[in-house]
Amino acid sequence: MSIKISSQFDAGAIDIVSATSAGAIDLNIRKDSHADITQWFYFRLQGAQGEACSIRFLNAGQSAYPDGWNDYQAMASYDRVNWFRVPTSFDGQVMTISHTPGMDSVYYAYFEPYSWERHLELLDRAQMSEQVRMQDLGSTIEGRDMNVLIIGDPAAAGAPDRKKVWVIARQHPGETMAEWLVEGMLDALLDPSDPFGRQLLKEAVFYVVPNMNPDGSVHGNLRTNAAGANLNREWNAPTIERSPEVFLVKQKMKETGCDLFLDVHGDEGLPYVFVAGSSALPTFTAEQAAAEKQFADDFKVASPDFQTEHGYGESPYTPEVLTMGSPHITHAFGCLALTLELPFKDNANDPDAQTGWDGARSARLGAAVLQPILRAIRR
Ligand code: ZN
What we know:
- The structure is a single chain.
- The chain folds into two domains: 4-109, Immunoglobulin-like (Sandwich); 116-377, 3-Layer(aba) Sandwich (Aminopeptidase), CATH 3.40.630.
- The protein contains nine helices and 17 strands.
- The chain has helices at 116-127, 177-189, 195-203, 214-219, 244-256, 286-302, 325-333, 359-368, 370-377; strands at residues 4-6, 15-21, 24-28, 42-46, 53-57, 74-77, 84-86, 88-90, 95-99, 105-109, 132-139, 145-151, 163-169, 204-209, 260-267, 274-276, 336-343.
- The strands form three sheets. A seven-stranded mixed β-sheet has the order 11-12-14-13-15-17-16, with helices on both faces. The chain has a five-stranded antiparallel β-sheet with strand order 1-4-10-6-7, with no helix packed on it. Strands 2-3-5-9-8 form a five-stranded mixed β-sheet, with no helix packed on it.
- The chain is globular.
């Protein structure tokens, strides 16, 4: 039986160079659909059960984040439900997966995918809660829906005094761990037996955008939308033509106000969970610095997966800072705004050889983030 590689499915992405035998599969990581960014891959291999496969990514050294392949183990699954890590090496140019599939069909991906179908199911499940209204903000470039979940009635008695908490994820669509986190956060927030969820819904109104980049997600892009825009560089002057996703969300934020903003991402290089704040802003105050530190300290208590030792560190102000979500929101609303980064690789403080960092661990972190949010809105 001959082998076959394919990627014509939701978020599928790979370029085949040569795939004639299991022992010599040569591939290239595909570019984002409308930009020169290569990093995300997701494909299916059939016909190689029991054969020692050598799957080589010839252009790994030219990807957007080559450091992402150091100490990286690719993910694989036979059923797209249970994902596990497979032996992967990188010599500075070529990345190689060495794996003997146990079944006729196996999927390999950069990280556990979060499908468009699952995204729609997440929205549907959330709206079953009487706490939730789902609003359509408009459409992406390719006509997909931009939805925000509004949790807690903003028009209820006393609600105007409640804190407005905004959570967005997947501006960079290949950072699927971000939507896994949102799923875990929503499940806890809407669980009537969760004490943090119960309190938060008395004291806050949530605005949640589980997927900021639907077109890029379906295309299997790492970082850009269907116009080739990196949405996390569009916040200063988004346009309907180039970055409708940011334009529509920012418009809604102006209407609602914002007291706390979380923008969830994945980091290709660092094997840790961490936050990045707005300290590069010239207007950054000691009070804002204290709020960021308190949130991080509270998060550490809420989840041992969160840490503050490793992160991006301080960076100087450049005009680009105001184009990024979190600093832009701190600048515009004066509020606490954080970029939350989850690893593609693993949590080096508590590694798991079987799964590495994955969707389930991201979802648990999403449930845990309710604790620091509750503390933050009470200050
Ligand atoms: Zn990102």
